[in-house]
Each structure stands twice: as structure tokens, then as C-alpha cells.
Amino acid sequence: MEFIKSYSRGSFVLILVLGVILLAATVSGFYWVLQGMYRDISLLATPQTLSTALLDPISLIHHKVFIYAACVWVSVFLFFGILLWGSLRRIVVNSFKKSGKPVTKKQVRASAASAADREAEQYTQQRLFLHLLSVLQREGRLVDFFSEDLNLYEDAQIGGAVRVIHENCKKAVNKSLALEAVIDRSEGEEIQVDPGGV
Questions:
Q1: Long-range contacts (CB closer than 8 Å, 24 or more residues apart) made by 154-159
Q2: Separation of alpha carbons 88 and 81, rounded Å
Q3: Which of the residues in the chain have pLDDT under 50?
Q4: In the listed set 77, 103, 129, which residue is the last one of a domain according to the structure?
Q5: Which pTM was predicted?
Q6: How far apart are CA 141 and CA 168, in angstroms?
Q7: From CA 65, how far away is CA 13, in angstroms rounded?
Q8: 136, CA 20 to 30 Å: which among 73, 99, 109, 118?
Q9: Selection from 61, 27, 69, 25 nearest residue 41 by Cα
Q10: 27 near 70, Cβ under 8 Å?
Q11: Is residue 92 located within the same domain as residue 149?
């Protein structure tokens, strides 16, 4: 999808630059043709053939024709430039679709939805963690204990406080969570793992 966006921008700039160069060349060519015609008419103007008073209206017509022609040329080049750019973009998009590259809007939406799901899952995990921490704080004052400066107390005082905090947090954990062993073995007992098994 990013390739198509960069291709669209690049092709648009290239068509615009080439169109401006071609437009400038054709408009300046037309201008020089009109200038040559005006010069030829003015050279032919003699008192017997053409009055020099008629050269001013011819000059005015010459400038108006140039302005109108230039406007028409700009419009035509702009129209066909946009048409060419759209056609080339469509060809590239169709080529990508045929090659199996992901360019559909559905896939973009699906990736956005999976990102939203991951974000929602992360938010849920954070909420569960905060809930557990708040239960341990409410029942056992665990966060207060971690925030306390223990240098101010004797070891016996700390031991007595830790015993109370431990009992209250253990009650809170047993009440809130159903803990069970991951492996049905005693602690310190050796375990054999089959090759390839986890």
C-alpha cells in the first residue's frame, strides 16, 4: 500500500513536470508563429496596400488569440495529464492485485482491528494488574510497606510488621486467586523433560 502511495506521488510529479515542459514548448512555439505572422503583415503594410492604422487592431487580435489559445492549451494539458496519471495508477493497482500483494482496504482495516485488539488486551492486563495491586494494598497495606523508609525502624519492629503484612496479603491472594502448581512435583525434585517437549 505504501508503494502505491509513493508511486502515485512520483508519477504525478513526473507527469506534471513533463506536461509543463511540453506546454511551455508548444505555447512558446505558437507565440513565435503569431509574432512572425504579425511581422510579415507589418512588413507588407505600405500606404498603397494596407493602412498602418489597421496594424493596431491586428496586434490586439494577435494578443487575444494568444491568450485564449494558451488558456485552452493549459486546460487540455491539465485534463490529459490527470487522465494519464489516473490510468497509470489504476494499471499499477491492478497489477498488484493480480500478483497477490496486499493492497485491499479490508486488509488495512483488519490490521487496524488486530492492533486495536492488542491494545485492548494490553489495557485489560494493566487493569487486572492494578486490581490485584489495589487488593493487596487494601487488605495487606503492601504498597505502603514498599513506600516506607525502613531505616527508621529496628529489625524486630520490621519483622513484626512484615508478619502482619504477609498474613493479610496471603489471605487476599487466596481469596482473589485460585493458585495451583504448574508441575505436580515436590520442590527441589528432579524433573525429566522429553526431547522436544516443554
A1: none
A2: 11
A3: 103
A4: 103
A5: 0.38
A6: 8
A7: 30
A8: 118
A9: 61
A10: yes
A11: no
CA distance 128 to 101: 40
Helix ranges (H only) for 45-54 are none
Q: Quick one: 80 and 29 in the same domain? A: yes
Question: 142 vs 71, 147, 163, 168, CA distance in Å?
Answer: 80, 9, 12, 9
Q: Which parts of 2-104 fold into alpha helices (H)?
A: 2-44, 55-99
Q: pLDDT by residue (tens digit) across 178-196?
A: 878 777 878 788 888 778 6
What are the pLDDT digits (tens) for 35-66? 777 777 666 665 555 555 555 666 667 677 77
Structural domain count, the chain: 2
Residues in CB range of 169: below 8 A, 6 or more apart: 136, 139, 140, 142
Q: How far apart are CA 67 and CA 15, in angstroms?
A: 24
CB 11 within 8 A of CB 3: no
In this structure, the chain runs to a length of 198
How far apart (Å, rounded) are the C-alpha atoms in residues 175 and 193? 34
